[in-house]
Design a protein that fits this description.
Blueprint (H helix, E strand, L loop, with lengths): L10 H4 L6 H6 L3 H8 L5 H5 L5 E3 L15 E14 L5 E7 L4 E6 L4 H6 L5 E9 L5 E4 L2 E4 L9 E3 L8 H14 L21 H9 L7 H5 L4 H27 L11 H9 L6 H14 L6 E6 L5 H14 L3 E5 L3 H15 L6 E4 L5 H13 L4 E4 L13 E6 L7 H8 L10 E6 L5 H7 L4 E5 L9 E7 L3 H13 L3 E5 L14 H11 L5 E4 L5 H12 L5 E4 L12 E6 L7 H8 L9 E7 L9 H12 L3 H12 L1 H4 L1 H6 L12 H17 L1 H12 L9
Parallel strand pairs: 4-6, 9-14, 9-15, 10-12, 10-13, 11-12, 13-14, 16-21, 17-19, 17-20, 18-19, 20-21
Antiparallel strand pairs: 1-8, 2-3, 2-5, 3-4, 5-6, 5-7
Length: about 700
């Protein structure tokens, strides 16, 4: 028992305080710890832990009827059992079922194997049957003594981790399924989006854990079976209910209403800018200003392609807050990006009399102390920085707006910490999150239902389209020649490498070597090197030389992925492009084409030893050549990677959708979105139980 009370103890003993938890934790067995690692803590978690695939142990087949590649269960007699030492130590067991023979091969085995597989023993074995010159073989099949009843249902194979055997997990799941509260949380009489979804939850789970042998394996594996439909409906509903609840809770919070008085600072900034805003920027600016004028905290995601001009929109939002007498914080994921934002914003805002402070991890103690004093007194109206902004000792006088750039690079905890910086009790700052990884509409509707989304879907005029070429590493010398031609025209070049150091696992040309090679191949040209392990002052010096046009070529790791803006750079070479994700390639490509010169991006790829590129890598490179549109890129990236990986599972480490697929289950999502508000209004108790069952503590992730 959890309290440690044994039957027969007195009531007095029962009132004793429970022992400290640490000794109890030590008593957990390895499989119990593995269950916790998988997140299987409650009975319902076990009941909802569904099989990856199934094994058919309900019938015995004859070897003569088996096709190569089939997984089959046979009953046969052992006719030979020997250990051979060549080509390596292995146990070879020949069996005969009366219709044909088969050799079972074991590379790891124990004396118990030899005993159980002694000549003359009759056994039942299951494994993949392979053909070949030497006849039928099975590698490491499962086996036991013949006889006994055959299974009546398909045997489930569950997702697991090291230290958790299938047999233990199967028993745990059955226990969880028997004990879990599976009472109905769906409102009575609802219309199902698919009439096949009208199974009860208990029936659906019982069936999926132990399907009958007559069921179509294809319907189980592609998740089109009615039992699957029921679970997908429930899961999507839980997600929508949770997001709607988070949004309603936030709507009860209060934030300062930041109303524009005439043109004010935003008008002065617009007048001072050397360029006009696109229609999309103006539209998004109006959406944000409308949000800021309300006394409910804004929670808006601003998405736009690389170079669409999100920083200007964020600066205008900051001006609205500052004009109303409040402070604004802008947080970026890297020091390079924070430095760039700072330089740009100081140039725009200080002529207007707005004091900008900045905070980064590598700051000198004296400079940091000065900045902290400016922030606390309120003299610094805008604070730009990295994670340093959310550290405990940073005190704002009156923070009203928090802007997070490249929000996908920040975790939930960091976003929550930034929100807690507001001093006024019961108040929250407005939040504007920005991303240059456009999120496809179905995904935004599902995963960001608790956010308002603004889209800058137009690039500023004067940006030249970027031509993308895929080139094999064998033609590297041609690329270096092309670089020479660009430099003669006074242009600059990026060369991006995936790793800094040689790694045994990834035999890549490191950035340092590439830097040396290019310096040799391009005499008289300044070739710089930039990577994440360099001291900050060194990084800064390199970036200044490149930005000023003194440096012709910059060899870099992916630290330049976000935010580097050099209009004179017209060529981007990405080495080992096949190893990058699609959105990362698109981000990198967006670093060129920022001026009037024709720009190009070269994707250098290397093929593995004796092999060819994987299908996924080929798809990525193909997509890059075919389109420059960030939204189309995002859609394809989603197809290739799936939603969990695409969104970093919303930076939580746990996928918010396990069963439903947004590509194929869009109609189920529409149904869940329509039902969720009705259910919260009319059956709030059911809604609460439903969220608790499906999400447990994970709904917290939606609050950031």
């Amino acid at each position: 028992m959890a309290s440690g009370v044994r039957p027969g103890q007195s009531r007095h003993n029962r009132a004793m305080p429970a022992p400290p938890p640490s000794p109890v934790a030590k008593t957990l067995s390895a499989p119990q710890k593995a269950l916790i690692k998988l997140g299987l803590k409650r009975d319902i978690d076990l009941a909802l832990h569904l099989p990856l695939r199934y094994e058919d142990e309900t019938r015995i087949v004859k070897l003569r009827d088996v096709r190569e590649g089939d997984t089959a269960q046979i009953e046969a007699t052992v006719t030979a059992c020997e250990i051979t030492l060549r080509p390596r130590r292995q146990l070879l067991v020949t069996v005969d079922d009366g219709s044909d023979t088969c050799v079972m091969r074991f590379f790891s085995f124990y004396p118990s194997h030899q005993k159980a597989l002694a000549v003359g023993n009759r056994i039942r074995a299951r494994g993949e049957v392979k053909g070949g010159f030497m006849g039928l073989t099975m590698m490491h099949p499962n086996f036991k003594a013949a006889g006994g009843n055959l299974a009546e249902a398909l045997t489930p194979v569950y997702p697991t981790v090291a230290g958790l055997a299938q047999a233990y997990l199967r028993r745990a799941v059955i226990t969880g399924l028997n004990h879990a509260d599976l009472s109905e949380t769906m409102p009575a009489g609802i219309a199902w989006p698919d009439p096949r979804g009208a199974w009860t939850l208990r029936d659906a789970l019982q069936f999926l854990h132990h399907p009958t042998p007559d069921v179509s394996l294809a319907a189980l594996e592609d998740r089109s079976h009615p039992a699957w439909v029921r679970l997908k409906c429930e899961e999507l509903l839980a997600q929508q209910l949770s997001q709607l609840t988070a949004k309603r809770e936030r709507d009860l919070l209060r934030a300062p209403a930041l109303k524009l008085k005439g043109q004010g600072l935003p008008g002065q900034l617009l007048a001072a800018l050397p360029f006009g805003l696109t229609n999309a920027q103006q539209r998004v600016g109006r959406e944000i200003a409308k949000d800021l004028a309300r006394n409910v905290p804004m929670h808006r995601l601003l998405q736009g392609d690389v170079g669409a001009g999100k920083t200007v929109v964020a600066a205008l939002a900051a001006m609205v807050a500052i004009d109303a007498g409040w402070q604004c914080a802008l947080m970026a994921p890297t020091e390079i990006l924070a430095t760039q934002h700072f330089a740009k914003l100081v140039g725009w805002l200080e002529p207007l009399g707005v004091k900008v402070a900045w905070l980064i991890g590598s700051q000198k103690k004296k400079e940091r102390a000065t900045m902290l004093a400016l922030i606390e007194s309120g003299e610094a109206a805008l604070v730009v920085g990295t994670h340093a902004v959310i550290q405990e000792h940073v005190k704002f006088k009156n923070l009203a707006l928090a802007v997070i750039d490249e929000q996908h690079r920040f975790g939930v905890a960091q976003r929550l910490a930034l929100r807690s910086k507001m001093q006024a009790p019961g108040m929250e700052p407005h939040m504007l999150m920005m991303t240059a990884t456009p999120i496809p509409r179905t995904l935004a509707m599902s995963y960001y239902a608790d956010l308002d989304v603004s889209v800058i879907d137009e690039l500023p005029p004067g940006r030249t389209p970027i031509v993308t070429r895929v080139v094999s590493d064998h033609r590297r010398h041609e690329v270096v020649e092309r670089i020479g031609a660009q430099l003669q025209q006074g242009r600059q070049v990026y060369w991006v490498c995936p790793l800094i150091e040689e790694s045994e696992a990834l035999d890549l040309t490191n950035a340092t070597q590439t830097h040396a090679d290019l310096s040799e191949a391009l005499p008289g040209v300044m070739v710089g090197l930039l990577h994440s392990r360099m001291p900050v002052a060194e990084k800064k010096a390199v970036m200044e030389l490149f930005t000023a046009g003194v440096m012709g070529v910059l060899v870099s790791t992916t630290v330049i992925e976000v935010g580097v803006d050099v209009p004179n750079a017209s060529l981007m070479v990405i080495e080992h492009a096949e190893r990058f994700g699609l959105s990362q390639l698109h981000q990198l490509r967006g670093r060129v084409g920022r001026g009037a010169a024709a720009s190009a991006c070269v994707l250098l790829y290397g093929t593995p030893e004796g092999g060819r590129l994987s299908e996924t890598a080929r798809e990525r490179l193909r997509a890059m050549v075919e389109t420059n549109d960030g939204f189309e890129i995002a859609r394809r990236d989603l197809e290739i990677r799936g939603p969990g990986e695409f969104l970093g599972a919303r930076q939580s480490g746990a996928a918010l959708l396990r069963f439903a697929d947004l590509e194929t289950d869009g109609h189920l999502l529409d149904w869940a979105r329509a039902l969720a508000p009705q259910m919260l209004e009319r059956q709030a108790h059911l809604a609460e139980r439903h969220i608790g069952r499906w999400l447990g503590g994970k709904s917290e992730f939606l609050k950031a």
